[in-house]
């Protein structure tokens, strides 16, 4: 059951591979060299930092600290959603829309999983709460970002069509209906594909991690199933919520298309 | 019968506009970019504006915007289509406007992508009229049409006015056409809209 501890040398050997990739990208003029190196350095620093934070957090089970870290994770995820939009809403909406939808579904579903399904005691036991929330947020983030990006860019491109539909007497919901449906679909498809391919094509990361650390594979699989279901539901619900609120905000109270609200 | 009453409507950098159209056709002309389309879009409550528009005793800002746009039928300069098949954009599959606009009944089964600009424009007019709007705002409805189709469109609209007693604003650059259509002409110049003699 013991994990083989990785030495600095072991990690350096893996880092050499990334360096080799960066070097070849440079020779091929892919324009990715700097991004690869910066992203790799970020991985090391961010993960080391969160490792230390988790270590401290696990040492004292405190609702306050768990909440603080959760909020921080949410805010960073919200920023990431915003950064992935080509045309985002201006002002507080640009940040608030994605963050709010992730908050509603990720937090609610994580708390539900902790209290009702896993039944940890206390329910905010950081060893369960933080990784669960992290996986939820990481995936919902992708879903919300994809859905919102699809919504805003399509609305921008299809302005004439949306307005033509309004002119012919359709309400805003119908006028943008095809676009909202496509956006939600785009946001949900990655998770549905992941569920369909799980175990056959890819061994999901969390399960692999548990197995590497010596957990019985069947136990690891059960947790993975739980996570996949939670993530799929969370991603779907937040993509729907974000798309619906976003679509509504593209129109004003007189149901006029207000694309100038996108920056 | 319907009266379109535009009261202190202010949009973009135009001076406030007021005029009344009593079940008649008026033409609106003016240089490109002078705000003709913006004015029509404001009357249809499609863009933010000040002032108000009345259709008989119904005030635009007081009625549901969806109903308002159903009453005030705006025809934009360029038509937009969102389904593949022409007929899917129509509420009724049977009406007279297609024939009057030189379009066969099968045109409802056409693919939008295969229609010419002129066909799309005539189909857009038929699509608007079959919804039976109580007023018409036509933004250069014949700009993309050949001479024969221009005449067809003019007669269809005039028949529609005669049948339903609706007010019509027709944006046109063509002085000959304006003379054919009406004696009442408005012109936008230097951000101001004035009634001029035809």
Percent range for helical residues of chain B? 25-40%
Strand content of chain A: under 5%
The overall pLDDT of chain A, averaged over residues, is 93
- Largest sheet of chain B at a glance? 6 strands, mixed
Continuous helix count of chain A: 10
Spatial extent as radius of gyration of chain A: 21 Å
- Order of helices and strands of chain A, N to C? HHHHHHHHHH
Instruction: State the distance separating the first and last CA atoms of chain A.
Output: 54 Å
- Describe the strand arrangement of the main beta sheet of chain B, using strand numbers: 6-7-8-3-9-10
What CATH architecture of chain B would you give? 3-Layer(aba) Sandwich
Total tally of structural domains of chain A: 2
Report the order of strands and helices of chain B: EEEHEEHEHHEHEHEE
The shape of chain B, in one word, is globular
Q: Which structural class matches the secondary elements of chain A?
A: mainly alpha
Output mean pLDDT of chain B. 93
Number of DSSP strands of chain A? 0
Name the quaternary structure.
heterodimer
Q: CATH superfamily assignment of chain B?
A: P-loop containing nucleotide triphosphate hydrolases
- Give the radius of gyration of chain B: 16 Å
Low-confidence stretches of chain B: none
């Amino acid at each position: 059951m013991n994990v083989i501890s990785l030495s600095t040398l072991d990690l350096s050997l893996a880092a050499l591979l990334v360096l080799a990739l960066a070097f070849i990208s440079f020779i091929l003029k892919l324009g990715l060299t700097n991004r690869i190196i910066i992203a790799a350095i970020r991985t090391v620093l961010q993960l080391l930092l969160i490792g230390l934070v988790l270590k401290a957090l696990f040492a004292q089970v405190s609702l306050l600290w768990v909440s603080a870290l959760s909020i921080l994770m949410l805010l960073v995820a919200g920023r990431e959603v915003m950064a992935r939009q080509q045309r985002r809403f201006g002002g507080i909406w640009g940040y608030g829309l994605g963050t709010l939808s992730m908050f509603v579904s990720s937090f609610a579903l994580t708390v539900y999983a902790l209290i009702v399904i896993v039944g940890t005691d206390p329910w905010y036991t950081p060893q369960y709460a933080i990784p669960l929330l992290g996986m939820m947020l990481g995936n919902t983030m992708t879903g919300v970002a994809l859905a919102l990006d699809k919504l805003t860019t399509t609305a921008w491109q299809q302005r004439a069509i949306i307005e033509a539909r309004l002119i012919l007497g359709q309400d805003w919901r119908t006028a943008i209906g095809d676009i909202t449906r496509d956006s939600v679909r785009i946001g949900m498809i990655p998770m549905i594909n992941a569920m369909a391919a799980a175990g056959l094509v890819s061994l999901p990361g969390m399960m692999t991690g548990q197995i590497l650390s010596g957990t019985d594979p069947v136990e690891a699989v059960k947790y993975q199933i739980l996570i996949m279901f939670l993530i799929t539901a969370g991603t779907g619900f937040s993509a729907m919520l974000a798309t619906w609120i976003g679509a509504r905000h593209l129109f004003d109270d007189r149901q006029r298309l207000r694309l100038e609200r996108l920056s | 019968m319907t009266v379109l009453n535009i009261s202190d409507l202010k949009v973009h950098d135009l001076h406030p506009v007021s005029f009344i159209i009593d079940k008649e056709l008026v033409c609106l002309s003016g240089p490109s970019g002078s705000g003709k389309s913006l004015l029509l879009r404001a009357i249809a409550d499609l863009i933010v504006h000040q002032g108000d528009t009345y259709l008989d005793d119904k005030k635009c800002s007081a009625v549901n915007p969806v109903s308002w746009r159903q009453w005030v039928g705006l025809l934009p300069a360029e038509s937009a289509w969102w389904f593949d098949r022409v007929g899917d954009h129509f509420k009724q599959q049977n009406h007279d406007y297609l024939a009057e606009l030189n379009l066969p009944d099968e045109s409802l089964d056409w693919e939008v992508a295969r229609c010419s600009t002129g066909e799309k424009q005539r189909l857009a007019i038929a699509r608007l009229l079959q919804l039976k709007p109580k007023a018409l705002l036509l933004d250069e409805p014949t700009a993309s049409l050949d001479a024969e189709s221009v005449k067809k469109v003019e007669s269809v609209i005039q028949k529609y006015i005669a049948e339903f007693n609706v007010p019509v604003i027709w944006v046109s650059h063509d002085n000959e056409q304006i003379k054919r259509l009406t004696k009442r002409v408005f012109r936008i110049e230097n951000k101001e809209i004035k009634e001029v003699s035809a």
